[in-house]
Amino acid sequence: MIHRRRVNTNLIAGCIITGLTVFIILVGYFWTPFDPAGMDASAINAAPGLPHLLGTDRFGRDTLSRIMQGAGATLRIAFFAVCIGAFAGTLIGGLTGYFGGILDELIMRLSDAVTAFPSVLLALVAVSIVGRGSDKLILVLGVLFIPSFARVVRGEFVKQQHRDYVKNARLMGVKDARIIFVHILPNISAVLLSSIAIGFNNAVLAEASMSFLGLGVAPTESASLGIMLKEAENSLMSAPWQALSAGFSIAILILGFSLISEGLGFNGIRSRTSKRRLRLNAENA
Amino acid sequence: MHFRPTVKQIISALLTLVMLTALLSACSKSSTESDPAASGPDVSSSVNPGQPLMGGDLVVALPTDIDDPLDPHATFSAETRQLLFNIFEGLVKPDTAGNFNGAVASSFEISEGGDVFTFKLRDGVKFHNGETVTAADVVYSITRVAGLETGEPLLDGIEVVDSVEATDEKTVAITLSSGNVEALALMTAAIIPEGSDPAQEPIGTGPFRFVSRSPQENVVIEKFADYWGTPAYVDSVTYNIIESAETQIMSLMSGAVDLVAHLTSAQVAELGEGFNVVEGTMNLVQAVYLNNAVEPFNKVEVRRALCYALDKQGVLDLLSDGKGTLLGSSVYPAFTRYFREDLISFYPHDVEKAKQLLAEAGYPEGFDMTISIPSNYTPHIDTATIVAEQLKEIGVNVSIDLIDWNSWVTEVYGGRNFQATLVGLDASTLTARKMLERFETNNSKNFINFSDAEYDEVFLEASTTTDSAQQVALYGRLQEILAEQAANLYIQDLCDFVVMQPDVAGYEFYPLYVMDMSKIYFTA
User: Fold this and answer.
1) Is residue A16 in a domain?
2) Which of A210, B69, B228, B303: disulfide with B199, CB 3.0–4.6 Å?
């Protein structure tokens, strides 16, 4: 049987797309074609063209500049929210999955309870308690993401802990903490990374929908993709480029992360199946 | 192993393509369609009015649900008030110029000292239940609204009414505790049948009578055939509750509603041509109301600096294509007699002067401030966004805090726990006094904590004088003090657009927040 090494197109495409968007966002931190907040009464709702490549909004602000700044704000929120969620989620999921017991039951039922509520509703309640603003949004989203990460990590830990390498390590007297972080964690990295990429998607969408509902980033704080969508709502018919620009930016951001997540998952599965196949081949030979 | 896309992948790729093409064609279509309309001379915005037709059922969009009881004596929300304007009438009724004409009363006399109002009742005025209005009904209504028996006046300012009595079958005399010629505006308080409770059954004398009300859905009123005055054109009016501005626009486009009031210029622009558009002002004072009691707004230099930094015309240019009326103090131009137009340019746009004043006040680097805004008022939020951008120039960083309406009422307006807020304030009755009394030091509505000894003095004088010319002068002085002290960051009286289907006409603006449905008609 001829085995041809397959190129992981998803991962490569995802990395290229994400790399490009992140590059544009980084540029946006230092330079934008216009001041993202600068208003211009002479160019209200200007159509795409020169000098405003993606047109302007109803205050005459340059859409491209706002997209660059807004995508940055959105990505920043997504990044930190996922950091909080992934870190706390991995810790909780790892410990409960490894040790099991009553605490495991309790925390998992708690996370069931949390996931039972629609996340937007939960976020709404949280925002009405802590208030609006991007820093608060990071906190709220981060906390809301903990259960999903905890669940995934716990499942993997439960699976891994009956594997021989874990049993062997235990017999050799390796400490629990070392088994958790040094032995098991690297083995679930593919799954974890892929759920982090999905987490990014959810965070970008969550920021967009929360800001769209007026619960996320405050209007004067900075542009964000959700804010831009909301502001474009009133001129959806007369100036569609505003909504389209923001919408496409969200779509591209998410596409990149989705492809990466697909690619990582694919990679993990491929490496496992090919090893098994090699072993089978060896036995048959 | 070859790359073989699954069926699912192929379908999703195809779907994406279809959606993309649909999107692209939709936007290219809309842009080509709007181009000829923008320059086309054949469809002008003032569609030929045509001849009024009698009859027809009018559908009107209402931006918020009516959640008050339909009691004309105790309404808080402006939306309820404007609806009840069509059902109830007082002894007198305002016209479009702001004059008070007899309604239930055919004529009235005001005594020399301005403290006794004598009303002669009109013959043959009927309630919606078919009964004729008597002096006893008037006495009951005024007693109820002024709280003469309960001790709790239901309407703002009505507490000046001391007593009411029917001198004969057709005459009612109302005595005030002190002479106040402006009290005529209070006599618009609705006349209801003796012993009735309008919260249970809203019965008035207006051109329309109440039919039904479905929460979150609609309110229906129908033409009252026995109305004493000019009867309404249309047979019925249905107020559909449509809270989203975008849905209102869609409903107009689809023809589901005939009339939408209080639209912004951007929304009118989005509608395109082919509608009957009337422009007026909203009759309110839009300003950044500053809490004069908190840092840094307790310093008059800071308040003045903000006034100089604000480019009002610039706000209008960005917000509404330059439409709207600039203001310089707390009275809007519908009060033609009192409005001080000269105060508009009291603080010309001058960034250097603003910076200098800030430095004098001890804030050379500027400061951070928060403007709290009720989240359901898009025009105010937009205005604040522009103001924030302008104030950046002098180093003042504005953050906008969107709060829900109830929090605004309790926290900001009631609790005075705020730094700055951007709203539009109006008058519940058509008196300049209502606009100005809220800045008297001890007034319960003085939520900005404005305090100025001269203001209090002049206000007291203005409210006791019976000389009309002197009153105008004193009210003028009050506006001047507000401007001098830079009590608030006055911006504008917002422009207000009413959009009707091309076959609907007759809308007239009042100096109050009302929609007079009796004047609206379908055209042939």
Assistant:
1) no
2) B69
